[in-house]
Amino acid sequence: MTFNVKIEPSGKFFESEQNLLEDAISQSIPLEHSCKTGQCGACVVEVLSGSVENEHGKVVTSGTVLSCQSKARTDVVLSASYYPELTGIKQQTVPCKVSSFDYKTEDIIVISFRMPPTANFDYLPGQYVDLSFKGVKRSYSIANAKQNNKELELHIRKVPNGQMSDLIFGNVVDNQLMRIEGPKGTFFVRDNPKPLILLAGGTGIAPVKAIVEDLANNDDPRDIYIYWGMPLAEGFYLDSLITLSKDKSNINYIPVLSGDEDWDGRKGLVHKAVCEDFESLEKYDVYACGSPIMIDTAKHAFFEKGLLQDSFYSDAFTPSK
User: Fold this and answer.
1) Whole-number mean pLDDT of the chain?
2) pLDDT, tens digit, for every residue of 154-166?
3) Which terminal residue of the chain has fewer beta carbons within 10 Å of its beta carbon, N or C?
4) Would you list the DSSP string of 293-309?
């Protein structure tokens, strides 16, 4: 059966027959989400009225559910974040070819893809795409601001025994044909005057790089603090962030090493570095990208430092085999 779903406080409606999140997106109602697997918790919504079968298979009439794993069982009203900024951006599947690739470390490769000249692929910096190759599909964040040459940059980490990793590492070649589907996700910088703290773990720096490039290109005046956590010093593979921080006085780049090796810079857990540097986070917006554990730990620590509940945005990386 098909049920009517109303979103508050926006007042938007959509019809739902299967999955709440997918049905909303298919009808140009972009609700907040990230991994779509139920692991990150970004898509949580509140049931205000009606009945919903939640992620545990239980029918509830109140409380919160994960929209990516839930179904309407009656007409319902949900309290959920709705983003009109995304309504004009169309998800599409386009062919792409490898234009260049660079092994930054033994387990991280940066690949640039070019799309057909006729492709009109629009996105907001911070969003991700699904990359398809030889029957395998995996999600990767777009790592560059929009360019006139219609290229997309992806940062891919090697996962032990990972299907996509085995296909790409040591095998990728120039002009290799693949497919990209997207853009997806609701991880993008909101338009407000608050200074920004951008937190990244590992290749979670990819969407942060895209965001910072876009802000710099548009001479955004907000103060920007980039905190990047890595276990090994060789993992800080982006010299472009150093360059941006030197060129723009409002951009601050703070790499934080969690490993035990000698290091002249900051050491420890990356979210703790933020807590050490700011007496209060009340007047900031935080955008965090990394593992679900890192994001959850950072969120609770930042709330204790005064961060407002609606000022934390996240994109969880959930590696697949």
Assistant:
1) 94
2) 999 999 989 999 9
3) N
4) HHHHHHHHHHHHTT--G
Residues 6+ apart with CB under 8 A from 18: 71
- Residue 205 carries which side chain, given as an amino acid letter? I
Going by C-alpha positions, the residue among 220, 226, 163 that lies closest to residue 194 is: 220
42 vs 276, higher pLDDT: 276
Sheet with 52-53: strands ordered across: 59-60, 52-53, 71-72
Q: Indicate the pLDDT class of residue 138, thresholds 50, 70 and 90.
A: very high
Extract the tokens encoding 185: 């996700």
CA separation for the pair 182, 291 (Å, rounded): 21
Helix, strand, coil proportions of the chain in percent (round to 5)?
20, 35, 40
Q: Are the C-beta atoms of 33 and 67 separated by less than 8 Å?
A: yes
Please answer whether residues 42 and 32 qualify as being in contact, where contact means their C-beta atoms are separated by less than 8 angstroms.
yes
State the Cα–Cα distance between residues 305 and 30, nearest whole angstrom.
30
Q: How many Cα atoms sit within 13 Å of 152 on the Cβ side?
A: 32
